[in-house]
Amino acid sequence: MSMDIVxxxxxxxxxxxxxxxxxxxxxxxxxRLHERNQQGWNVYCGPNPRTEFGKxxxxxxxxxxxxxxxxxxxxxGDGCGRWEFISDRIHRAGLDMPDVVVSSGNGLHCxxxxxxxxxxxxxxxxxxxxxxxxxxxxxTIKNPERIMRVPGFKNMxxxxxxKDCFIILEHxxxx
Length: 175
What we know:
- This protein has 175 residues and is of the alpha+beta class.
- It has helices at 30-38, 82-92, 121-135, and strands at 5-12, 15-22, 42-45, 64-72, 100-103, 107-118, 148-149, 154-155, 163-164, 166-170.
- The protein has a single domain (5-51, 60-170), classed as 2-Layer Sandwich (Alpha-Beta Plaits).
- The protein starts with a strand and ends in a 5-residue tail after the last strand.
């Protein structure tokens, strides 16, 4: 996995900056990404590794290690928070709880790590679409090159009121 290529995208208004790095080289990028985030840039990356530097497309994804669901704009109520509503959906669907849950600032992103990476990305897309339908989550996140918010940064979508993006749940694995 250290040789995986990670694509970062910085987005501010209609501007997009892209950067690729080997996974092993990502930690030193953190301070530069924080600088950009403080300048109003939203920080995203692709959970699925890329094949080549400098290319953004579904064709540049070699395999998928994760399934994910995006639950934006679920409002807490009845004494419950967002996670209670979403975890109830997951439980009622008979699914395992996610390995990672990220508060994106406007909702929650749930990630399930695949026991083995999928190289058949048509199959991955089918499974991703079934997950989305089952959980009634955001229907747009079914493409292999999908980018998601990176925890540890601010969601700058509403420039006047940045919101923290952070991990709220993480199951540690032995790898």
